[in-house]
From TrEMBL, chain A:
Keywords: Cell membrane, GTP-binding, Lipoprotein, Membrane, Nucleotide-binding, Prenylation, Protein transport, Transport. This is GTP-binding protein. It comes from Lachnellula willkommii. It is found in: Cell membrane. Residues 187-219 are annotated as: Disordered. GO terms for cellular component: endosome; plasma membrane. It is a lipid-anchor.
UniProtKB/TrEMBL annotation, chain B:
It comes from Lachnellula cervina. Belongs to the Rab GDI family. One of its GO terms (molecular function) is Rab GDP-dissociation inhibitor activity. GO terms for biological process: protein transport; small GTPase-mediated signal transduction; vesicle-mediated transport. This is Rab GDP dissociation inhibitor. Gene3D superfamilies: FAD/NAD(P)-binding domain (3.50.50.60), Guanine Nucleotide Dissociation Inhibitor, domain 1 (1.10.405.10), Guanine Nucleotide Dissociation Inhibitor, domain 2 (3.30.519.10). SUPFAM superfamilies: FAD/NAD(P)-binding domain. One of its GO terms (cellular component) is cytoplasm.
Length: 219, 467
């Protein structure tokens, strides 16, 4: 079963911790693209809406002894009509709220998602605000609809990490995830909540052997 | 806001477990699905709610008071509205594994399965033996009866419908279960717990009906196999409550392209001749924006019965009381969770009384609390409290009791072939989801014209992209 973050272990001097990260933001701001860049170092301009992955994982090394693994949950389009399930937020350790710096309304939507996170998620969730599509502005500065300083001021006030990113050129994408990793409570990593497994949970696997009590197990 | 597509293969109404499993499976198979719920949350009748919502749903408090405040943080409560558990070797478990929905959920064992013998002051509670070894240690039987039970259980294990040598000289397809019990010389009390606590029949009609022996044996095996999969009891339960199940399957559907709209009312179903071909609907906006009206076409509609009351009939009435306790059930070895069955014969009823208990061990309530749901099929139209009384006796001191009027159980009048509207059944009184998955498969067959093969659904899919 997928580890529920934060699950951690320590062998000798090295630390390994796993965290659940959720993505939020309006449709078409580039949530999936940021993850695709971070996880597979790919970009596809004509990508259809999110399809096909329960979650993606990626590890980063903070230093030679510390490895952080992100279990990254995409909205699967359920944000489009405000139909995200509570399950999505459950036990999320960190979140990336994305807006599009060329769309003025997308920052307002991002602010609503931050509020929703504060309502639904763990109290001490780490939230990063990412203003995506920086490449469009680099090419044509007049396309910018949201000033860096405005978004930064909001982020500071709300206690969020802040980056302007480009999933297309990869600018600041790795930095975004690395700064989240640095803020996560690595020392608390471990079975902080029962969802991290190992507390009497059962693993459901197709190959779980059915031992016999009353004949051949049909499961 | 994006436009709704002009046409979908399937529109699903209601986000109960049945609908969400179907939506998920159909999306995985490449169908274009629009999934709608009139509520602002997933799960419908299969949702789990917090304690404030529960108080407000039942309205059993004085206006102006906020009784939920004495129970800690409201969101630490995930109280099921449907009293069910998963058989660990059951079909829902199989579907969960086959679709990888297990990736979103964590399960825990239910600590024990118990049965009551006798009634009133003489009632005793004992663990249901699940294998020959436990049968020999059980307090449910005397020493000679234990040997007979052991040989019965061993026979169930080796029984093969196609091998008449294993049929003990009975004509297994036409005999009754009474004939089988007689063959082993089992006493009435033993028959009671085999039939009700292991085969999980809720009435005694299976005993005298001809031809039910193979099914009964299959049920006992499912019970035994489920116990032996993880030990202790045949049941498992998802952390944070049963409401996680529909959410997990809804996410599966969304990942495969399913579109989700909560808070959306169906204004009209569009027909061509007798066949449904589309809907008119309105999505309410919680953020204060204008409601969004839309029309879309579809090849078929799947729905829970509440969306088509005129196309469903009532088949029975379920009685249910949700009780908050601050102690485990007496006689259950301080189990953090259990099922306790009170067979109908023990308390002079026709239908069994079930008690399902879960607790903070399953992240459904704060530490120190237990949630017990007592349920049965109504046998009278009055005094439902009295019908559940033998169940309440087992609970001891009750902090809060939530009990509404009896709950009608619906099933569709027609198969759906004539009008393209395929309706599910209500969650019945059984303690597990086997009938729910039967319904899923039945609806799938009616709607798609072929059997749902769950095995292999995960083949060729890549649900987790590893780096």
């Amino acid at each position: 079963m997928a580890a529920r973050g934060p699950a951690g272990s320590r062998v000798g001097n090295s630390r390994f911790a796993q965290f659940k990260l959720v993505l939020l933001g309006e449709s078409a701001v580039g949530k999936s693209s940021i993850v695709l860049r971070f996880v597979k170092d790919q970009f596809d301009s004509y990508r259809e809406s999110t399809i096909g992955a329960a979650f993606l994982t990626q590890t980063i090394s903070l230093d030679e002894n510390t490895t952080v693994k992100f279990e990254i949950w995409d909205t699967a389009g359920q944000e489009r009509y405000k139909s995200l399930a509570p399950m999505y937020y459950r036990n999320a350790n960190c979140a990336v709220v994305v807006y599009d710096i060329t769309q003025a309304s997308s920052l307002d939507k991002a602010k609503q998602w931050v509020k929703e996170l504060q309502r639904q998620a763990n109290e001490n969730i780490i939230i990063a605000l990412a203003g995506n599509k920086l490449d469009l502005v680099t090419e044509q500065p007049d396309k910018r609809a949201i000033q860096t300083a405005d978004a930064e001021a909001y982020a500071r006030e709300a206690g969020l990490l802040f980056f302007e990113t480009s999933a297309k050129t990869a600018e600041n994408v790795r930095e975004l995830f690395t700064s989240i990793a640095k803020k996560l409570p690595l020392d608390q990593a471990g079975p902080r909540n029962p969802r991290s497994g190992g507390r009497g949970g059962v693993e459901l696997r197709p190959d779980t052997p059915g031992t016999q009590a009353g004949g051949p197990c049909s499961c | 806001m994006d436009d709704i597509a002009p046409e979908y293969d399937v529109i699903v109404l209601g986000t109960g477990l049945t609908e969400c499993v179907l939506s998920g499976v159909l999306s995985v198979k490449g169908k274009k699905v629009l999934h709608i719920d009139r509520n602002d949350h997933y799960g419908g009748e299969a949702a789990s709610v917090n304690i404030e919502t529960l108080f407000k749903k039942y309205g059993n408090y004085t206006k102006g008071e906020e009784p939920w405040k004495k129970y800690g943080r409201v969101n630490d409560w995930n109280i099921d509205l449907v009293p069910k558990l998963l058989m660990s070797c059951g079909e829902l478990t199989n579907i969960l594994v086959s679709t990888d929905v297990t990736r979103y959920l964590e399960f825990k064992q239910v600590a024990g399965s118990y049965v009551q013998q006798g009634s009133g002051a003489k009632a005793t509670v004992a663990k249901v033996p699940s294998d020959a070894g436990e049968a020999l240690r059980s307090s449910l039987m005397g020493i000679f009866e234990k040997r007979r039970m052991k040989s019965f259980i061993e026979w169930v294990g080796t029984f093969d419908t196609t091998d008449s040598a294993s049929h003990k000289g009975l004509n297994i397809n036409t005999c009754t279960m009474k004939d089988v019990y007689d063959k082993f010389g089992l006493e009435a009390g033993t028959r009671d717990f085999i039939g009700h606590a292991m085969a999980l029949y809720q009435t005694d009609s299976y005993i005298s009906e001809k031809g039910t022996a193979p099914e009964t044996i299959e049920r006992i095996r499912l019970y035994g196999n489920s116990v032996s999969r993880y030990g202790k009891s045949p049941y498992i339960y998802p952390l944070y409550g049963l409401g996680e199940l529909p959410q997990g399957f809804a996410r599966l559907s969304a990942i495969y392209g399913g579109t989700y709209m909560l808070n959306t009312n169906i204004d009209e179903v569009l027909y061509e001749g007798t066949k449904a071909v589309g809907i008119k609907a309105t999505m309410q906006d919680r953020g204060g924006e204008e409601p969004m009206k839309f029309t879309t076409k579809c090849k078929k509609i799947l729905a829970d019965p509440s969306y088509f009351p005129g196309k469903a009939q009532v088949t029975g009435q379920l009685l249910k009381a949700i009780c908050i306790l601050n102690h485990p059930l007496a006689g259950t070895d301080n189990s953090d969770s259990c099922q306790l069955i009170i067979p109908q014969s023990q308390v002079g009823r026709k239908n069994d009384i079930y008690i399902a208990v879960v607790s903070s061990a399953h992240n459904v309530c704060p530490k120190g609390y237990y949630i017990a749901i007592v349920s049965t099929i109504a046998e009278t139209s009055a005094n439902h409290h009295l019908e559940l009384a033998p169940g309440f006796e087992r609970l001891g001191r009750i902090e809060e009791k939530f009990m509404g009027p009896s709950i009608p159980l619906y099933e569709p009048l027609e198969s759906g072939v004539n009008d393209n509207i395929f309706i599910s059944k209500s969650y019945d009184a059984t303690s597990h989801f086997e009938t729910t998955t039967d319904d899923v498969k039945d609806i799938y067959r009616r709607a798609e014209g072929h059997d749902l093969v769950v095995e292999g659904l995960r083949e060729g899919t890549n649900l987790v992209g590893e780096e």
